[in-house]
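WARN retry 2 of 3 for item q-0093 after timeout on previous attempt; input resubmitted unchanged.
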Amino acid sequence: MSYSLSSAARPHGVLTQLGAPAAPPNGTLRDGKGLWHTRASARIAADLATDLILGLTDSEAASRLATHGPNLLPEAHGRGPARIFLAQFADFMVIVLLAAAVVAGFVGEAQDTVAIGAIVVLNAILGFVQEYRAERAVAALQAMAAPQARVRRAGGARSIPTAQIVPGDLVLLEAGNVVPADLRLVEIAGLRIEEAALTGESQPVDKITDAVSDADLPLGERRNLAFRGTVVAAGRGFGVAVATGGDTEIGRIAALLRGQDEARTPMERRLARFAQRLALAVLALCAVIFAVGLARGEEPVLMFLTALSLAVAAIPEALPAVVTVSLALGARRMVGRNALIRRLPAVETLGSVTYICSDKTGTLTENRMKVWAIRTVEDLSGQAPPLYGAERAPRPLLLALTLSNDAARGAGGTILGDPTEVALLAAASNAGYDRVLLERTMPRLAEIPFSSERGMMTTLHAGMQGVVAFTKGAPERVVDRCARARTERGPVPLDRAAILAAAAKMAAEGLRVLGFATREFADLPADLSAQGIENELTFLGLVGLLDPPRAEVCDAVAECRTAGIQVVMITGDHPATAAAIARQLGIGEEKAPPAVTGRALARMSNETLAETVRSARVYARMAPEQKIAIVKALQEQGEFVAMTGDGVNDAPALRRADIGIAMARTGTDVAREASAMVLLDDNFASIVAAIREGRRIYDNIRKFVRYSLSSNSGEIWVLFLAPFLGLPVPLLPIHILWINLVTDGLPGLALAAEPAESGVMRRPPRPPGESILGRGLWQHAVWVGLLMGAVSLFTEGWAYEHGSAHWRSMTFTVLTLSQLGHLLAIRSERQSIFRQGFFSNLPLLGAVLLTLLLQLATLYVPVFRAVLKTEPLTAGELGICLALSTVVFFAVEIEKLVARRRRSGSQRGGRSPLSAPQSV
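OK item q-0093 returned
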């Protein structure tokens, strides 16, 4: 394929001879960055010292390659694998666990040491894999460039490696090419470029070559530029390389991406605070118990071992395992709901989300154009509603939709081609117009292809009485060429103002509007130019197209609002289109402010931006750094932000958000590498399902913390209060370690399988600053621990006073079984287990029964008795232990009953369920 430019168009004085091109003045490239679209091609050639016909010489290209470097994105200077792996051991909770492992080994419990070590190493491996994946995000950007590109150098076209393109090169483009550098277009023929990955524009962009005067245009409106990494959808042309490597728009995004650290998840922050406070409290209590024991005259070795054993028991070393198992099971369940988790903590983060910043195209919409409304001359007054669908459209208009169209059906019946033409042909086909059959009687005789300068295309077909032409294009361009309009009654005078007003109203509703017209000829004209054919046309009607909202998204958005989650649309599309879709989906309030544009946001101060993000629900024409600014502004106000996206331009914001969500079908590798979660069906409703799962997982983790703290505090109270009540040490160190082993192990892990509580999506998100011990958890742990300790000490005192030699075994049994009763009662924070059902979590029921059998084995199996220093209980003693062990279970059930009645009373008093106190 050859490209030509008339000699008259050649810039005067620019490289009149090959061989010694002047180098661009120092700073020209840097000073001109971002303003290339405002300069005429002759000025571009002069600034870059290139020839618009011959291109650069080989020697000049080599010189510039040495000066500017290869056309590659800068490599990310990330952390190496060893550094990433070692960083996993710097967490405070991990340090506490390692200390507990050392203590367990010191007191002779090697199995605890091995178990804790295995948990720590497993967590380190998982964390390493997740972070190492994140380091590959910038590498995916590099892969977006084609390995070869065609350029014109020294007057000849040739293929060269993309890395060798330099500023000033003439780069040739044709359909299917990946643009290898940022180009200022010089000559084009029907050139359309798919820029969704970079700008978010849902439709291919019709390119132009004229300079534009507005220096502040967003990327999506700089139509005389072609950007690296975008794809030529149709046509051909060439342009001057004005930016390469890191100076391209994709290079700029790569720099933004490298500068964004992934935010720590809410759970990671909460668990870190929890671990620090718990470790300090446990060490202080153990020191007190050791000192009190010495003061009472107990043996120092026994008290030291007791204090160390209690330290091991009080640290919930199963917590990381419970968290990991919960997240892994949740991630597996989410795959079934079309959400693929790339970073395990993201599973829980979903439950903390307060804002979802969603892309429009393909996530909230179907990602396919559809004929949404048709206006004919009869209803241009607006008195009649537009025609939805094409079934009742007049025949001439349906013929135009069918025949003036380059889309075609593939082998499987799927319509292939430009998205707009696919939608037009599908609408006509649904109305009963078969293109294949029509073309047998009305074959295409000639065509005038679409050009951005004319804004129209025309096809000519054999008709019943000669030749008929159908024209489609921008309404104002088509109307300018029309002399009359057609109705069912025949031709009528053209009301240009009414047609354009109707087109403007449709555009304001977010529709992409096309005008259609026709003209009849007796024979095929000799002059087939646009000037000869596209005049004296008869107007047929307006067709409005839209990428329609997904049917299920409206309900998903409504569910988000019920759950206290704000949904925000951030898109590269036109503001009117974005606002129209947002209204249909119920995003924002009824009197929400209009869409905020990228140009307006760029002029805002930090204070204005902070105020804007509180109320704005629709953002349009956003640049990558502006998306980051929105996310940061929300985070600075304490919000947890989920950000969806599919393009290169979304990657930095995906990385910055609390949870980045990429698209699997339409998303780029760059976006997926920067994200924590990938939607397999690109559907917003899948995000809501994932949020529901995230809330369930966090609830279950809190239940384990509630269970573990209450149990551990019960053990502490038993050892702490016994000396003050004049009782001997109630438990041996081996008893404490046994309780810790059997109650924190399988029963705790089984909580991860607990189903979601009813109403999980009818409550607001957790406050961002809320501790994992919030909403009454620590108070519950204190009073239940006290009650558990009181029941155990009562058992010890009763048995000791009645002269039973089994008082220690009875205390040991009551304390163990009380924890199992508590476990059953806290499966739900409010619902009674009798309503919930004992069999709704079979893994947990199995774990409780197994632990019960193991505890009985310590009393009646000789091997266990020898190791644990216990005695077999009589039937009466065992019955007393079983009865006393239910006290905690029924006490917690009564607590939940009181909470339910209090909640019910507050609702009858007029309070909203969302404002009801989150008491336990």
